[in-house]
Design brief:
Helices cover 22% and strands 32% of the residues. By secondary structure, the chain is α+β, with helices and mostly antiparallel strands.
Length: 171
Amino acid sequence: MPETKPASEFIGGRVIQKASPKFRHCVLQFETVTQINRRTRRKRVGLAMSELRCTFSGRSLVFDVSYFRWDRIQFDERGEPIDDVFLPPDFAIEVLSPDQSEPKTVEKLRFSLAHCVKLGWLVNPYARTVKVFRPGKPVRVCRGTDVLNAGRLVGGFRCTVDELFGWLRIA
């Protein structure tokens, strides 16, 4: 199917259009990609991207932020990344917008972790929380000075919840 704006996803045999992102959502998405790539790209540890379509396990999902370890990125004969991605990211981040369903987003992250995603964050700029999802572990709700640690998976990337939401102060 042709791409839509905002992106559509294929879930449970249905095409579902994502919520249109709001300003805070966009700032957090941009800054998260920037901060992760600042720590990982030059070292060829991995690469974070926004709005990348990942098709795997019968679904086609578009995460706000997808991170792939360098050894999992597929390149063509020119050394350029292949456009279509048919595998799950190593790390997936979703940022809630006011009109986005949190239960549906949680289900999306749970599905992804059941299909090889190693870490998921659900960032809620309105509650000022980050829910951390790891396979086989209970969801951890982080706020304030709690440390969000992506560990070796993401080149030692870590920040506090306050630091993450501090990226909203752009003036």
